[in-house]
Write a structure and sequence with these properties.
alpha+beta, three-stranded antiparallel beta sheet, 57% helix
Length: 122
Amino acid sequence: MAKQQKYYAIKTGKGVKDKIVTTWSECEQLVKGYPSVYKSFKTEEEAKLYLGSIKDVDKKLEENNKAMEYNKAKKKGTVSVANVFKGVRIDKVIAEEFEAKCKDLNISKEKILNELIKEWVD
């Protein structure tokens, strides 16, 4: 199966504004290490709509910074389950049932696992 084409819409990057590129390597060169606003899309039309929808670049940059800070703080206080349970595998059917039940209850898998582990430890 061929890899689907992606379109990277760069609202602002290193010396570019409102640019669409088709490879991550080109996008990365234009956004990495620079306060940038960008997003990937499956179609060029979606990418163009995105570029037209962002009116306040400074506000979007501020939102991006807040999201990055939140993610950094979250990573400091958490560990990946893969790191804690290396080599542990769960039966596919059980995993699928667990995901379906989470969806039915509208509760994230992470929240349920946290609560189960807390209950087990206490």
